[in-house]
Amino acid sequence: MTGREDAIRQSDGQPAWAQELLDHLRPAGRDIRRVVAWLAGTAHASVSLQDATGTLLAGPRLPLDQDLVAGIATGRIASAAWQGQGSHLRLVKVDHPHPHPARSCVLAVSREAPFDRHTSDIVTHTAQVLELLLTAHESTAAGHRLRRAAADLRLAVLQLLMVEDTVSARRVAAGLWPGLLDTDTACVYVVETDPAQRDRFAEACLGATDEQALVVRCPATDGHVIVLVPREDLAPALRSLVERHPGTYLGGSVRHSLARTATAYGQAVSALAIARFRPDRTAVYAERTRAERLMDPAALRTWTARVLHPLDTLAHHTRAELLATTRLGLEFTAVNTAKILGVSRNTVRARMERVEGLLRTDFTDLTARAVVHLALNAQAGLQDAPLTGDTGHPAPGLADPLAGPAVRTWAEDFLGRLDPDTRNLRRTLRTWIAAGGNAERAAQTLGVHPQTVREHVRSAEPVLARQLLAGGSDLYEVVLAHLAVGDLDRPALHGTKPDHPDSPVHG
Prior knowledge:
Structural class: alpha+beta
Radius of gyration: 33 Å
Distance between the termini: 72 Å
Strand content: 5-15%
Helix content: 40-55%
Mean pLDDT: 82
């Protein structure tokens, strides 16, 4: 490119028109339409630029012999000149760096006056400038396509990890990012930034981690960037990046196996909610005193195995797919779960309905959702606990996991925070949960306005330090506390939906 610019500068001792033409090579002026318009004004001519297929790229369409145009575009003819009926026409080939040679372009210049040497030089050099601009444009477009393809592959790798298909994820990643997933564990971080700045921030994350992390533009939430970090020493770079960009927030998970990427992602989103209220705008998921942490690990694992036992008859890939979808579907909406996994919302609903059928329960019941959520969390967090007892029998009720004195003491203290409020927030919350989180049905039971129910639930959030209206982990924790103290009925498991095709009675 520099050599051709120098050739133009030396032409005719760099006359004024040459300097004007060179100005079109500056970053702010690289537009083939402007160049064609400039040539038309300078040469006092009508000028067009089209490819061999007749596609007009710039300027007005001129009446041209298409066979002649095709001959020049394909290289059979170097250039052509024609005159008649009071006009003079010049056709010049402009090489286009397109993979298909037939996409080379033709510059057509038509004017009333004959082409003198001065005008011919302008046309020749303009063709060279156009070639440079087309080359630069194609390089930019190719770079964009490459970046888009790489981003799509990163998303594909993340989606494979979300459904626990680590073998396929490693195979896809190995070609472009060797060694990226040569690890058994990783942390997941979610960065929140201005949606308009997300692409730039994603590139900044790639740079900050030296492309040693899996950086993905979240398909569900505009403004979110998901970063899977295999090495602990990369996390400080992300925190430093957030520090330097006001208005950005960072939430991170604890370390999990790659097969538990979906669990790690849920933790990162929970931490992100906390990061919005911290001075440094960052937070890492902290294991609060949750109900499952107060239970005997071996007994909890046995109970979990019994709850999820109906899924054990499925093929490993199908089981992992159903569990991963359910784990995300209990945390997020069906629409967002579908976007994260790269499937349709109907697929998400169908998978969760299949899990409902296998467990013979009903996910419209918040207590059932909370119990299955507990089982899924226990499965993810207690992999090393010894398995005791027979898992081949129907799951018992929640009496064993939630009947321990430590769990009950925790639940009473936890819900007891609501007792000082004279509005009886505890009764409203209990009724709202029993109504499936539906304010209208809860209001009918309580004899109040639905808005009153919502205000009471919203007032309970800061007291319990949990997000309730948004659903997800925080709400399920509150549901389990109510179950532990006996304020809600135990949900049925392996005892409902007997007509479902996956139900044992149909097997």
